[in-house]
Amino acid sequence: MSNFTYVGSDNTAKIKVIGVGGGGGNAVNNMIDSNLQGVKFIAANTDAQAIGISKASVQLRIGEKLTGGLGAGADPNIGREAAIENSDAIKKALEDSHMVFITAGFGGGTGTGATPVIAEICKEIGALTVAVVTKPFSFEGRKRLRQAEEGIQVLKEVTDTVITVPNDRLRGLASKNATMLDMFKKADEVLLHSVRGITDLILMPGLVNLDFADVRSTMSKAGMAIIGIGVAKGENRATEAARKAVSHPLLEDVRVSTAEGVLMNITCGSDLTMEEMTEASECIYNEVGEDTDIIWGTVVDDSLEDEMRVTVIATGIASEDEIQSGGDARKRGRVRDMIPAGPRGQVDYDEPTFIRVRESEEKRGGEPEKIHKGFVDGSDDFASFETPAFLRKKAD
């Protein structure tokens, strides 16, 4: 468990997580148990019994007139009408949010039907909206899978980013003798890492911090997104963790090279070296396109000891139809550091990102380019380091 403390302020991005339906409610409970900090939790369900065991600080019983608190009966239409019935209460719970994560299990009634309605409400209040939803296991039947696919298509139209987690792929993360409970816990863990991989970069102290504007620029690419998680320890932990992230079972049959944006979170102890940072970044760099916006940051968590965790979220993924239409393949991407803006190469992160970018380009007499925040230190202590490959490529 993380050893740092979150301290809120008026200038901190207000982030809320709303779990919709049974699957979403379970995911929220898991996030609370895992001490996910800096966010406000909301649970919304048509099932009064499920709401009763929620650990969220805000609990919304939706569609009570329609369902009598007995659930949506696996009918997405009822889930949708239930959310509409209580749209004012949902809007009030979400107001003042800068960013909203909607988590749900798709294929049933409440999650599949209510989530798009809630996403539309988030859009109305101007919040960056990221939906993290699971697709049902194959043993749950073709009808649930079809309903999930249809629901995801609707969700894509009203959400900034949709991260899908195919539950069947989770079998690659568990032993052959894993129980049903183990498999559903794996799904909850992936949902947790999807949210934590983003919120930690904004809210938690790290060697490299990202502001909300950085994350918004990547997560608002519109369309589908996928997540890969890699964990490793030992001498080659950086390379191994990064490779595991981009070859994660959840990424099968997905072309990361088509992503418009990539967010990378490296979480480890305070012993992270510059060489490890370079190795992990270059491994991700080699998988994406040249026009891809790449932002990354690090979070310090000494409880991990020798372990390193790399979380990669690729956004704006091209659909199979777009790929087969013969569109130009994206070229190799490049990760760039901010130009040193203060003594000893320190960057003034209190200054807005767009001003830092403009000033750094004007100093070099060049035109503004897409610049991605990274590790910067102009001190002589790093003079002996060989120039990282991903920085050498920027001169190409």
List keywords for this structure.
10 strands, cell cycle, 3 domains, 19% strand, Rossmann fold, cell division, nucleotide-binding, disordered N terminus, globular, 396 residues, 60s Ribosomal Protein L30, Chain: A, disordered C terminus, single chain
Q: What would your notes on this structure say?
A:
- The protein has 396 residues and is α/β, with parallel strands linked by helices.
- It folds into 3 domains: 15-203, Tubulin/FtsZ, GTPase domain (Rossmann fold); 225-322, 60s Ribosomal Protein L30, Chain: A; 343-384, no CATH class.
- It has 14 helices and 10 strands.
- It has a 10-stranded mixed beta sheet with strand order 3-2-1-4-5-6-7-10-8-9, with helices on both faces.
- InterPro entries: Cell_div_FtsZ, Cell_div_FtsZ_CS, FtsZ/CetZ, FtsZ_C, Tub_FtsZ_C, Tubulin/FtsZ-like_C, Tubulin/FtsZ_2-layer-sand-dom, Tubulin/FtsZ_GTPase_sf.
- Residues 359-378 are annotated as: Disordered.
Structure described in brief:
Its main location: cytoplasm. The protein is an alpha/beta fold.
